Predict the structure.
Amino acid sequence: MSTTVDTATDVRSFQIEVPEAQIDDLRRRIEATRWPARELVADRSQGVQLATVQELARYWTSEYDWRRCEARLNALPQFTTEIDGVEIHFIHVRSRHENALPLIMTHGWPGSVIELLDTVGPLTDPTAHGGTADDAFHLVLPSLPGYGFSGQPTELGWENGRIAAAWAVLMNRLGYTNYVAQGGDVGAAVTDAMGRQGPEGLLGIHVNLLALAIALKDVLPAESEKERAAHDALQTFTTDGFGYFLEQTTRPQTIGYSLLDSPVGLAAWMLDHDTDSYYKISRAFVDGQPVGNLGRDNILDNITLYWLTGTGTSSARWYWEFGQFLAAAQAAGHAPPPVTVPVGFTAFPGEIWNAPRSWVETAYPGVAYYNEVDRGGHFAAWEEPQLFATEVRAAFSSLRS
């Protein structure tokens, strides 16, 4: 990777240049994989299925081309800047429309800026994607600390609040005095923290995961059929789909050795996130039938980015930081401060737990925008970029004046 320094500013242009030797080493490691025996069940209840990972590995070594992804990223304006001792990588695409609204969007785990790339066009150039000039955004897509091309923190404390504060510094550094923020997964937790910190210039937030649901589950309504179904989904996650979350919250360093040493181990760990997304991704590889935008190349772009940047361990540490912060807050009896800006929420049907409006209002009293859509899952921006962009436009439309 190379960085071109502009001495006139502390924001530096960035281009990706992965040495061919790293790609050759990746293929060699995949081909040397020691495979386990096939699972003894017909579903994912024992974990990521052998047929899925073997087909992923075959495609990875024989048909996948990282240089295509590298060129795609390098075609976008990329930068780095140091904030609070960590080098932050970000994509910054300014709209050609004069009155565009600045928007910072935060990815999650096991995602990266890759999952947001297909929203760049619809959000920054809406007139070419079914919108109007009044829908335009200036778009900032940072890589979380310890993820992708951002630096890996060398000290403790990089939880939601510290990242949220860093994002406010970033937007100020880019000259944006008024802006909005969006996030899913880890990005939803960071965006939530931004809303509670209420930095000067933040006009509103939009999230597509109710990140507080686990902490609030004892007070979330359970009267209607939708509410009971949401509780069932949350219970399933915390009893049967919680493996990666528990390991990374308690022992990220332990799993990190495997994630840095075996590309197939990294891929399987990243695929074993949630049931809906897993089966969609499995269909893309095994059956050649992608759902929405979750095709083989897009999935491998994201996994390969983790491998080439060596961020399997450092990205997992966010969960440990989150767990430590949450435990300390609960022990001290500290409730989070209220959100001080308007909140928008979109419920996608394939989400790990699909939050009904009553749940969102419990976390965000007086929620300004709520909508349920008919398709999309946990990786909403990745899977359904056009629908996702439409929701982001709608959520922030009232804040543009």
Observations:
- Residues 1-9 have pLDDT under 50 and may be disordered.
- The two ends are 41 Å apart (CA to CA).
- Strands lie at 2-4, 12-15, 78-83, 86-93, 101-106, 137-142, 179-183, 202-207, 343-347, 369-372.
